[in-house]
Specification:
The structure holds two protein chains of two kinds. Chain A is 82% helix and 0% strand. Chain A is an all-alpha fold. Chain A is rod-shaped. Chain B is built from four helices and three strands. Chain B has a three-stranded antiparallel sheet with strand order 1-3-2.
């Protein structure tokens, strides 16, 4: 049985669409399904005594077969894919959060060693990473990693937002103390 | 379709395929055509081929290639030893299930007849 190139293309397109619906299967199993369907199409064409089959014959056979959309991802597979995705996203968020803490600590260490303002850089970078981790944690909230990331990132952000203004006030008050003292002297006089 | 119906049908289809192959080996097209004849199951190629592929992966069916005129060789499926074992277990479970359901249904029928009289 020799099919025209256009007929072959129609079959390939149909099988391609089915294959994309079976992405959750491993390669061998997916190929097994597609090989079976290709043979099925050939047998269906043979049973219709269309030799050589025309493009219309192929179209008719494909129309009589299930729509590729009906090769639906099973509910249990769908759930396991979703769980896996949530776990992966949550885990990524968790490691980014750990990285953010690490960068902040590194900034503190570098500042103490070099007297340069590394803490500020570390704070900005880790702050951005914490926000990023929080987003990923929310996206993968169903997984334990996602939940841990949300809790950790929220705590860090709250603590950061509370500590940062206090630190600024402390710094400002400590640096402005001599000025106040100087300003206060004339009034004392 | 509701998930439980889909799960139930999948299990039922596996039972049908195993019993079909126990009688006679066959290639995909033949299996689909034979199963299509069973009323109520609404079996189509989109359900049969994924199940055949899964059963092959799990070792319940063995596959051999058969030469086909004017095309690539046909894949012929037959029941393996573990497939036979699986079929026996599923058949036993099916018998148990249908018996229990029949008893329940006949009990309900008797009760409704008793209420009528």
């Amino acid at each position: 049985m020799t099919k025209s190139r256009k007929a072959e293309r129609l079959i390939d397109r149909y099988l391609g669409r089915v294959g994309s619906r079976l992405a959750h299967l491993d390669f061998t199993e997916r190929q097994e399904v597609l090989d079976g369907l290709r043979a099925h199409i050939r047998d269906e064409l043979t049973s219709r005594r269309s030799n050589p089959p025309s493009v219309d014959d192929v179209r008719a056979v494909l129309a009589s077969m299930d729509d590729p959309q009906s090769y639906r991802v099973d509910d249990d597979i769908d759930t396991s894919i979703r769980k896996g995705r949530d776990r992966a996203i949550g885990r990524l968020g968790f490691f980014i959060l750990l990285g953010a803490i690490g960068i902040f600590v590194l900034g503190l260490i570098l500042e103490s060693l070099t007297n340069d303002s590394w803490t500020g850089v570390g704070l900005i970078v880790s702050g951005m990473l914490v926000v990023c981790a929080l987003g990923l944690g929310i996206a993968g909230w169903r997984s334990p990693y996602g939940k841990a990331t949300i809790i950790g990132a929220t705590l860090l952000l709250v603590v950061g937002l509370l500590v940062l203004p206090i630190g600024k006030v402390t710094n400002r008050s400590s640096s402005s103390q001599p000025i106040i003292h100087l300003q206060g002297e004339p009034t004392d006089l | 379709m509701t998930s439980w119906i889909s799960q139930f049908r999948r299990g039922l289809l596996e039972l049908c395929v195993l019993n079909l192959l126990q009688v006679q080996e066959g290639h995909g097209y033949q299996i689909v055509q034979r199963l299509k004849e069973i009323d109520g199951l609404d079996i189509r190629e989109s359900t049969v081929y994924p199940i055949l592929a899964r059963m092959k992966t799990e070792g319940f069916v063995a596959v051999r290639d058969e030469p086909s005129p004017g095309g690539p060789p046909r894949r012929v499926f037959r029941l393996s030893a573990s497939g036979r074992e699986r079929m026996r277990s599923l058949n036993a479970y099916w018998d148990l299930l249908t018996e229990a359901v029949d008893q329940l249904r006949s009990g309900r029928k008797e009760a409704s007849e008793g209420n009528l009289s």
